[in-house]
Specification:
Blueprint (H helix, E strand, L loop, with lengths): L1 H16 L7 H13 L27 H7 L7 H20 L13 H9 L3 H9 L11 H10 L3 H17 L3 H9 L27 H11 L19 H21 L11 H17 L9 H6 L5 H4 L5
Length: 320
């Protein structure tokens, strides 16, 4: 099944690549990796400048050097083939990890968040894999905002050390890249933290279930900048603890995305209109699922001792 899903994802991506030029997130990393390999500073490329032939993209590079390093093995391939490999490999591995104990978690691969991540060539399928398989947790360093939120779901020593080693290696290769990267980030638009959008404060209620990993994931995701266009929200599928909840998140996401597509997708600046649909179809159902659960879970022993005198409603309950 894993091989079949990977091949279907690859063929779907190749079909999209054969259509009139539509720029994907992966294209930014792929082109930047090619420039970097040629000795050109990809952070200094101005959109629609004399570099148009090698950078026909509307924005400068917003990804950190670790992302380029991870994509570097694919930089010599044609863009369509490289994109197909980039999205097909995590799709296949996710089938393996998600179905380890039951088949219902595979519903996540039918969600609009997964489909949009494939269409846009996003990192989130890799992040979902890293959350389930800490051995590849270093991948979270390729997009520190969403990566940090995913790390909050299941902080592990291997993921942390892997990320530190990757960042340290990037600094050895190019010590000044963080300065240029941060300078480019000042041009980022349409990437708000969900909690500061209209009615986004409601998501702060997730703190009432702070002992649960899915509540910490939801709260962290709500606080980091992201593109509210369904793809960045794929990690929230791990909030589901049952087939019913996974179905709710998937169906709710599809209803919201279809409303956005029919009403606003053809408008100028369509991305900016998607936020309310993402909130209604993804974040609020995830919050409802979280709040239905008791505030119970394992936390470090030192923290358990510190909160021993807190009110019961705040302290929650420890589990083995």
């Amino acid at each position: 099944m894993a091989v079949a899903v990977g091949l279907i994802t690859a063929f779907f991506t190749l079909e999209l690549a054969s259509r009139p030029a539509v720029h994907t997130d992966f294209e930014y990393i792929w082109r930047a990796a090619r420039l970097w390999s040629a000795g050109v500073d990809p952070y200094a490329i101005e959109p629609r400048s004399a570099w148009l032939r090698v950078w026909p993209l509307p924005d400068p590079l917003f990804y950190p050097l670790p992302a380029l390093m991870l994509v570097w093995p694919l930089h010599w391939l044609p863009q369509g083939v490289a994109t197909a490999i980039f999205v097909a490999v995590p799709a296949a591995l996710l089938v393996w990890r998600l179905s380890a104990e039951a088949l219902w978690p595979l519903i996540a691969l039918a969600s609009p968040s997964f489909v949009m991540a494939v269409v846009l060539g996003q990192w989130t399928p890799w992040f979902l894999l890293a959350m389930l398989w800490p051995t590849v947790g270093f991948l979270l360093a390729s997009k520190p905002t969403i990566g940090a939120a995913c790390f909050a779901y299941r902080p592990t020593r291997s993921a942390f050390l892997g990320g530190v080693v990757l960042v340290a290696l990037s600094l050895l290769l190019w010590p000044r890249w963080p300065v240029m990267w941060l300078d480019n980030l000042t041009a980022v638009v349409e990437h708000p933290s969900p909690i500061v959008t209209p009615f986004g404060w409601i998501l702060s209620l997730a703190v009432l279930r702070w002992r649960r990993s899915e509540a910490r994931l939801l709260l962290a995701m709500a606080c980091v900048p992201q593109l509210l266009l369904f793809a960045d929200q794929l990690p929230l599928m791990l909030v589901a603890r049952s087939k019913r909840e996974a179905t709710l998140l998937t169906v709710g996401g599809w209803i919201a995305s279809l409303f956005w597509y029919v009403r606003d997708a053809d408008k100028l600046g369509a991305v900016s209109f998607a936020a309310p649909y993402v909130m209604a179809g993804v974040y609020l159902p995830a919050l409802w699922i979280v709040l239905r659960q008791p505030n119970a879970g394992r936390i470090p022993t030192w923290l358990e001792r510190r909160i021993g005198g807190s009110p019961g409603w705040l302290r929650g309950a420890a589990t083995r």
